[in-house]
């Protein structure tokens, strides 16, 4: 186990710095200190959803943590050497369940057993966060192909502002750790998706209208492609809607999503998600812009590469933290088609 504490400035990266640093710290047995937590935000310091994630990872690896309290501007996380089989995650707000699971997913890379995760509270579909169906059908499929099995069961969905989700997950250590090479995507077989809406919106056929709009946009772009978007009504504490789409290729999966809100037509939600997916497919990417920063820690630990259509602020932050936490060095190389290849050199 590493003994020197790595210090990271969390001023510019928001909660993502905390999630990435804590997840990598647990997986490697590496103590980390994060200063200026969310320092550039209007309301700096740890929020409830960040704190819930930190506490769950600490429970998983029996870590010693200083500064694990609301509004804390500094956090020191020192992993233990004993792994738990079950952890509970309580999110008292409508914070993203998907984001809260991410540091646990990274921590599980270093676990010596499967980990069961029990989530109460939070939102499964939220602003500025990967919806849970996106993680299931995009992120976790790509990781399963690489070697890490993650299963998620949604017992109850949650939307802003009340949240109230109930989710179960099981995360396994990887069966092998080859480089995560996603240089080629292969053939696209079909496009799928799910259109979610709270049950009270059934009479207005909101889920069906979102699905039809998404399918129409996609069929215009790919007239010979099998396309199916499922309409699904769910029991939620707050009214909400969302669409998640995914395109499974032979070697990867691309995804896109859109969130409904008051005053936004269902047709606009479905069309927005479809146009985002079309942009990813037509760019020749092997990962979409949302998956790219999620895969950075895997490339940092094990090496590999992917192709994406643009370099984002999230990618910039993720690679900076990953390089600080590991021995990896990231390179980005422009491609002839306008995208870029991101590659990690480890060791």
Please provide a brief summary of the model.
This protein is α/β, with parallel strands linked by helices and 347 residues long. The protein is built from eight helices and 16 strands.
Set out the fold topology:
Layout: E1 6-9, H1 15-28, E2 32-35, H2 48-61, E3 64-66, E4 75-78, E5 86-96, H3 97-107, E6 115-123, H4 132-146, E7 150-156, E8 166-171, E9 180-182, E10 191-198, H5 206-221, E11 227-234, E12 241-248, E13 253-259, H6 266-282, H7 289-302, E14 304-308, H8 313-325, E15 329-334, E16 340-345
Parallel strand pairs: 1-2, 5-6, 9-14, 10-11
Antiparallel strand pairs: 2-4, 3-4, 6-8, 7-8, 10-12, 12-13, 14-16, 15-16
Helix pairs in contact: 1-2, 1-3, 1-8, 2-3, 5-6, 7-8
Overview of the structural elements:
There is one protein chain. The protein has eight helices and 16 strands. It has two domains: 6-177, RNA 3'-terminal phosphate cyclase domain (UDP-n-acetylglucosamine1-carboxyvinyl-transferase, Chain, Alpha-beta prism), CATH 3.65.10.20; 191-282, Dihydrodipicolinate Reductase, domain 2, CATH 3.30.360. The strands form four sheets. It has a four-stranded mixed β-sheet, covered by helices on one side. It has helices spanning 15-28, 48-61, 97-107, 132-146, 206-221, 266-282, 289-302, 313-325, and strands at residues 6-9, 32-35, 64-66, 75-78, 86-96, 115-123, 150-156, 166-171, 180-182, 191-198, 227-234, 241-248, 253-259, 304-308, 329-334, 340-345. Helix 1 packs parallel to helix 2 (48-61) and helix 1 (15-28) packs parallel to helix 8. The model has no long low-confidence stretch (mean pLDDT 94).
């Amino acid at each position: 186990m590493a003994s020197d504490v790595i210090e990271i400035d969390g001023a510019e990266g928001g909660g993502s710095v905390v999630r990435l640093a804590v997840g990598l710290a647990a997986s490697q047995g590496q103590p980390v200190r994060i200063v200026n937590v969310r320092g550039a935000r209007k309301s700096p310091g740890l929020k409830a959803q960040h704190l819930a994630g930190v506490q769950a990872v600490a429970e998983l690896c029996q870590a010693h943590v200083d500064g694990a309290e609301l509004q804390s501007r500094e956090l020191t996380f020192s992993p233990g050497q004993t792994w738990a089989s079950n952890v509970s995650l309580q999110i008292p707000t409508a914070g993203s369940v998907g984001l809260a699971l991410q540091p646990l997913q990274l921590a599980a890379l270093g676990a010596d057993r499967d980990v069961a995760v029990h989530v109460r509270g939070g939102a499964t579909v939220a602003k500025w966060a990967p919806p849970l169906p996106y993680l299931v059908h995009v992120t976790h499929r790509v990781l399963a192909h690489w070697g890490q099995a993650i299963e998620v069961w949604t017992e109850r969905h949650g939307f802003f502002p009340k949240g109230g989700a109930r989710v179960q997950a099981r995360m396994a250590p990887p069966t092998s750790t080859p480089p995560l090479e996603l240089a080629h995507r292969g053939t696209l077989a079909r496009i799928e998706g799910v259109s979610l809406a709270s049950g009270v919106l059934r009479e207005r056929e909101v889920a069906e209208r979102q699905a039809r709009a998404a399918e129409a946009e996609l069929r215009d772009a790919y007239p010979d492609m099998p396309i199916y978007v499922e309409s699904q009504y769910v029991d939620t504490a707050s009214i909400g809607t969302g669409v998640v789409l995914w395109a499974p290729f032979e070697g990867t999966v691309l995804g896109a999503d859109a969130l409904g809100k008051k005053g936004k037509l269902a047709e606009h939600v479905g069309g927005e998600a479809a146009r985002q997916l079309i942009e990813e497919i037509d760019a020749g990417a092997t990962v979409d812009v949302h998956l790219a920063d999620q895969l950075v820690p895997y490339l940092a630990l094990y090496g590999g590469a992917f192709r994406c259509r643009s370099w984002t602020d999230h990618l910039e932050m993720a690679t900076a933290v990953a390089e600080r936490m590991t021995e990896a060095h990231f390179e980005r190389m422009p491609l002839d088609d306008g995208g870029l290849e991101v590659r990690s050199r480890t060791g």
